[in-house]
Design brief:
Blueprint lengths: L13 H12 L2 E4 L2 E4 L11 H13 L6 E9 L9 E10 L3 E10 L2 E11 L23 H12 L4 H8 L4 E5 L14 E8 L7 H11 L4 H6 L11 E12 L9 E11 L2 E10 L4 E13 L11
Antiparallel strand pairs: 1-2, 2-4, 3-6, 3-9, 4-5, 5-6, 7-8, 8-10, 9-12, 10-11, 11-12
Helix pairs in contact: 2-5
Length: about 300
């Protein structure tokens, strides 16, 4: 992909960025169980994994009625090509009395780039418990990432144009980290972080849309958590970083246009792979979702180049 200068990027308002994301998730129906989507460049070398997961969730949900997704398990198989459409093929592998299962293959250039199974359930009551949300400052007391990025860039000196373009691109997701950490000058710190986030404002009253957008947002920041104790980030030139798999469990309905707290930690890294997990709470302290992901964290000192995937 050619390098991009920030000056060549169109300036979009928050509302335009959000509407564009919703449009990207609104797949075209090609045939029964067959859908097609397009991609957006978020500054990486390939399609953002959260986009593919979100679109795969949309494809699966369009083959299920009267049931909501409660979990998904996905493997990233190949980097996605941002210039080519993605075809989503849904296999209706089970429809039981309470649960439905769908297998989704995301296909580009005749090969799967992601394989996912999602499970849906009829709404029902039952026993409940949850872990307690940690005490952290509210989002109003924290700086948004967009403000922090200006400080990071000012202190970093010369920054590669592609990295600058990636950092300064107007995101659909607003982040406010509890423990800010400069990815351009990464310190060695504990493998944990907590980030408030929300997507836009005044979204439609569509629970399925909110779950698909939550799946999209859940792919941000996880592997970065596993890189923290090593003083590395997605932008470190000596690292090759990519998501390998992603698992998400939906526990309760929530609106993603209100603040949610994403608490992440990394219990282990080994064999050029890092494991990260997260818990997502709403402002009332309800546990909304749990996430787990393993990512490639390959040190590339002996290699000519390091391919950074965002």
């Amino acid at each position: 992909m050619p390098d991009v200068s920030p000056e060549t990027l169109p300036t979009l308002t928050s509302a335009q960025v959000l509407q564009d994301l919703i449009t990207v998730l609104d797949l075209e129906t090609l045939e029964v169980n067959l859908f097609r989507g397009v991609s957006r460049d978020l500054g990486g070398r390939s399609v953002f994994g959260g986009q593919v997961i979100g679109q795969a969730m949309v494809a699966a949900s369009r083959t299920v009625e009267g049931r909501t997704p409660h979990s998904l398990h996905a493997y990233f198989l190949l980097p996605g090509d941002m210039a080519a459409p993605i075809v989503y093929e849904v296999d209706r592998i089970r429809d039981g009395g309470s649960f439905s299962a769908r297998r989704v293959q995301a296909i580009q250039h005749g090969r799967p780039i992601l394989s996912m199974i999602a499970s849906f359930q009829v709404a029902e009551g039952g026993l409940e418990h949850q872990t307690t949300m940690p005490e952290v400052p509210p989002p109003e007391a924290l700086k948004p990432t967009t403000v922090l990025i200006d400080d990071w860039l000012a202190s970093a000196g010369e920054v590669h144009p592609r990295i600058r373009a990636s950092l300064t691109r107007h995101p659909a997701v607003e982040f406010r980290p509890v423990y800010p950490w400069n990815p351009l000058k990464p310190d060695v710190t504990l493998p944990r972080q907590a980030i408030w986030f929300r997507i836009g404002s005044a979204l439609p009253q569509d629970p399925m849309l909110h779950r698909c957008l939550l799946a999209y947002a859940s792919d941000f920041n996880l592997i970065g958590t596993a890189l923290r104790p090593h003083g590395r980030s997605w932008y470190s030139p000596d690292m090759q970083v990519a998501s390998l798999d992603h698992a998400l469990w939906f526990h309760r309905d929530a609106r993603v246009d209100d603040w949610l707290l994403y608490c992440m930690d990394s219990p282990s890294a080994q064999s050029a792979r890092g494991m990260a997990r997260g818990l997502i709470y709403d402002r009332q302290g309800r546990l909304i979702a749990s996430v787990a992901q393993e990512g490639l964290m390959r040190h590339t000192t002996s290699r000519r180049t390091a391919a950074v995937q965002a």
